Input
Amino acid sequence: MELKSKKAFKKIFIRMPNWLGDFVMALPLLRSIKENHPHAQLTLIAKPEFKELIKLFPIADDFISLPSGNYRCLHKLYSIGASEKPDCQVLFTNSARGDIEAWCVGANKRLGMAYPGKYRPFLTHVYRLDSFKNNLKEIHQTNLLESFLKSFCLVNEVNSSPFSLKSAKRGLNRVGIVAGSSNNPDKCWAVEKWCKLIKKLSFEIPESEFILFGTKNDCLISKSVANGCGVPVLDVTGKTNMMEFAEELAACHLVIGNDTGGMHLANAIGTPVTVLFGPTNLLVTGPYFDSPKLFLQPEGCSREGGSSIQLLDPKEVSIRVVNFLKNEIVNRG
Output
């Protein structure tokens, strides 16, 4: 369904995704909305933990933290909608809960996209993905959202250049490690494999400094890696907020990790990343930004995923990482 009018919006609310990786993959879309509608007030609705993070990216004018509890959340959104009167709300979520939230906000135009067989009756305008039905495993999530936004004249082109953090100073041979994955343990490489990789890299990259990152849910695996690798490692897992996490990642020469939100964040701020894939689809949810990146999968694994990440060999990963870094040094000249 297309909008009947292409008039400029005055107030645009955006319901952001709940997971860090999805949140980061939406950032280039926000930048493009802001560029295409420079006079619109852009307000993000998201989990409270993202409020500090978004301050690093000049793409939003206001932020609404989602409160906990069903009634409290919906009542707050209703009150905000009645006061602010947004003329458009865009949903980057695909849940019934997010749609009901949007209905409570009450924007005249509530926009979302629907996968084949799914319906979103609480929205006023829906971009259906039926025409992509046979290719959904091959199209990046950000590109699908770009098509959705273009259909409603919210963006023209999406810029995939990374963001630059003014305060960031990249350290030589500072290697970040993201060993956990809060939302899916199947995406986690085994502790002993991480330990072997860090040992190998400590010989291949002289005077390297290794730092473990992650959420509080990743503390156990990070502690096991730090205690088992036999190499000095700084473990800051669970000790940083989102803004501090981004600044720490920006100071790294390289970040290595599972397919998880921290890797998307490092990629978004221009830090070279090596991402280990197994069960997940790198075509759909791989880091999006045009920063140096190396995606590694087990031998014989489809790019759409489906293999165990444990089939990745630490020795082979080490060789690929070192070659990746050498190529980056040559490219930077």
Notes: The first strand starts at residue 11 and ends at 15. The radius of gyration is 21 Å. The chain has a mean pLDDT of 93. Residues 314-332 form the longest helix (19 residues).
